[in-house]
Design brief:
With 282 residues, this protein is mainly alpha-helical. It is 57% helix and 4% strand. The protein is extended and about 105 Å long. Keywords: Membrane, Metal-binding, Signal, Transmembrane, Transmembrane helix, Zinc, Zinc-finger.
Length: 282
């Protein structure tokens, strides 16, 4: 043992090498050790936009304009399609399956004015725009981007700007844009409602031209949606109808009780008259 200590004292390089090896080993062990439980929880449950970005799929389609296009279809076209009991062909660009955002829009749950909920993960949001951002960040992988399914591309033909209130009433008409939108509109009529397919398709083809395509002109002859759309029941009319149905039985009850009392009073008067009447002298 004495000889070993003397050798170590005479060889300081070996001591320095041992110290370096111990330091390197300890640092490598600390680097590979797992995080504490609280740090792991922070990493797992963080939901900042920066962490959402890796999940985003780039989609070159306007969600707002696609929503406006579907609103026009649902409001000013589908009531006539349902009345004719006509089924839109799959190749029609107005078919629900050709809207890339349709599934996400159907998974929106509107609970209150300031409460929206995601139908996929049940998270709540204060406004629809925040729910749209959540879809873009967390559920964009559910979008079918394999085919061209951007409903916003047909917004020009469907007059989406009027629904979105982007078009000013004093805006100058562009003849080239009007002709382009009319051509697109007539193409939609031909693909969605082939004139020779059936009588229903022929009627809907004509209606689509009058409802949407004829308004694409700078002459100001026809207005969009000239055939009308879905009828919305007036809230005042609805409230008045409910109130009338509630008060009508009460009214009939009052009339019945009044008539019964009048009839009862008449019978009593007749009896009193007969009893109190004096006999004629002989």
């Amino acid at each position: 043992m004495e000889n070993l200590r003397q050798r170590r004292a005479k060889n300081p390089c070996s001591l320095l090498l041992s110290f370096v090896l111990i330091t390197v080993l300890s640092s490598s062990i600390s680097a590979t050790s797992p995080l504490p439980h609280s740090d792991q929880g922070t990493e797992q449950h963080a939901s900042s936009p920066e962490q959402d970005k890796p999940h985003v799929h780039e989609v070159h389609c306007s969600r707002d304009r696609s929503r406006a296009a579907w609103k026009v279809i649902e409001e000013y076209l589908m009531p006539f399609v349902e009345r004719e009991k006509y089924e839109l062909p799959r190749q029609c660009r107005l078919h629900p399956s050709n809207d890339i955002f349709r599934d996400q829009e159907e998974h929106k749950i509107h609970l209150d004015v300031n409460e929206w909920k995601c139908g996929y993960c049940r998270k709540s949001f204060r406004a629809e725009k925040f729910l749209d951002q959540h879809f873009d960040n967390r559920h964009s992988n559910l979008l079918d981007v394999s085919h061209s399914k951007c409903l916003a591309d047909v917004c020009g033909a469907l007059h989406c700007d009027l629904v979105m209130e982007f078009k000013s009433k004093k805006a100058k008409c562009n003849p080239a844009a009007a002709a382009r939108n009319r051509h697109l509109c007539e193409g939609l009529a031909d693909s969605c409602f082939p004139a020779n397919k059936s009588p229903s398709a022929t009627r809907l083809h004509e209606l689509f031209l009058r409802q949407f395509c004829d308004a694409h002109t700078c002459s100001g002859g026809r207005k969009p949606f000239s055939r009308g759309g879905k009828k919305h029941m007036n809230r005042f009319y609805l409230a008045a109808s409910v109130l009338t149905l509630m008060l009508l039985p009460l009214f009939y009850l009052i009339v019945y009780l009044y008539q019964r009392e009048m009839k009862k009073g008449t019978q009593e008067l007749r009896r009193i008259t007969k009893v109190g009447r004096k006999a004629k002298p002989s």
